[in-house]
Amino acid sequence: MVFNNLLLHSKQIKEEDLCLTKSLMNCVSEAIIIIRSDGSILYFNNAASCLFGYSCEELLIHIGLLRKAKGKLSSTSCLLAASTLLIQIHQDSCTVPQYQEIKLLSKNGEECWLDYSVKAIEFAGKPAKLVTAVDITKYKQVLEREKELVQNRVQLVSMVSHELRVPLNAISFCTNLLKRHSDDWSKKKIQEYVNRLQKGVEMLSLLIDEVLIIGRAEAGKLKFDPKPLNIFQFCRNLLAELYPNESYQNSINFRCQDDCLSTNLDRIMLQIILTNLLENALKYSPSGGIVDFIVYHQDGKVIFRIKDRGIGILPGDRERLFEPFYRGKNVEDLPGHGLGLAIVKKLVDIHGGQITVESQIGVGTEFALALPTASIALP
């Protein structure tokens, strides 16, 4: 801190230098406060007013009232915190420079972190304390975010290790049986276990792909490439690819508001998003159940609504629905890794969109996806 370092080498500031010193202190970004030996504030620069959100006069009045009330004073928590801090600094002994970090409430009610130091000085020939402070809130937020990322990665690795065991155990089990009994089994039985092996490999491949998408999204390394897209044709092609021979027509009620509209979206990401939502809707619906797939434009956004008539989502599960590997308590016996909706949320966030869910047990679930877009009419 500039002035703190300067005053470490200067035990006294002369009277004739006061005006210049105060002018200089008002030009720096550090909060500078000088407290007299009686606890009153001798100087409070502009940066300090901005940092605390109060003027020197406001704090002096409140400190006086706080002392008279012996700490029992009804006031806003932010003003109380600032006043209490200055009183504490005055009361503490300060034989050597002190450096501390503290969390306070700013005037607007937001939490902020201060890195402050206290140094005993002589100001205009009288003992005083020099307090310098800087706002380190953004630095603390970055540290907290990094801590969360590390925790998320550790958790992800742990969960991936657990989930990998399922297909690997199936592959290992089938392989060992084939080694032992391939000479004794019929071709039909051998083929049955080969099919199980293939299914295990497919499960493993899908899990690895999903984990890679999550990892790249977390690291900000997924390429976002929005291009003009005919929404109607895109959705028709996607349904035909997922459900060949037009079988989807018996289970998916698809409607698009306008088939002559080009929308700027990332084709690959949109395919992953819609595939996950449609597959979930069908998986959790009873046999023969109808899924509504509605697309329209509203307020500069393209809206996708996918509604099933399935088992529904338990209220306690909805808050954690988009967490990696989290699965609802009423679907634990159904196949899945719990990564699909986590991927959907990441890709929606990359688009700058929103996804909401409404659900009722035994009635069904509806996901509403809103993606901002620049739309142009197709020729």
TrEMBL record:
A Pfam family annotated for this UniProt entry: HisKA
Domain Histidine kinase residues, every copy: 159-375
Keyword field: ATP-binding, Kinase, Membrane, Nucleotide-binding, Phosphoprotein, Transferase, Transmembrane, Transmembrane helix, Two-component regulatory system
Broad enzyme group: transferase
Enzyme Commission identifier(s): 2.7.13.3
Xref: InterPro entries: BphY/WalK/GraS-like, HATPase_C_sf, HATPase_dom, His_kinase_dom, HisK_dim/P_dom, HisK_dim/P_sf, PAS, PAS-like_dom_sf
Subcellular location: Membrane
Main location, first listed in the record: membrane
One GO MF term: phosphorelay sensor kinase activity
Any GO BP: osmosensory signaling via phosphorelay pathway
Keyword Kinase: yes
SUPFAM superfamilies from the UniProt entry: ATPase domain of HSP90 chaperone/DNA topoisomerase II/histidine kinase, Homodimeric domain of signal transducing histidine kinase, PYP-like sensor domain (PAS domain)
Topology in the lipid bilayer: Multi-pass membrane protein
Domain PAS: 22-60
Cross-referenced NCBIfam families: sensory_box
Function of the molecule: Photoreceptor which exists in two forms that are reversibly interconvertible by light: the R form that absorbs maximally in the red region of the spectrum and the FR form that absorbs maximally in the far-red region.
Protein name stated in the entry: histidine kinase
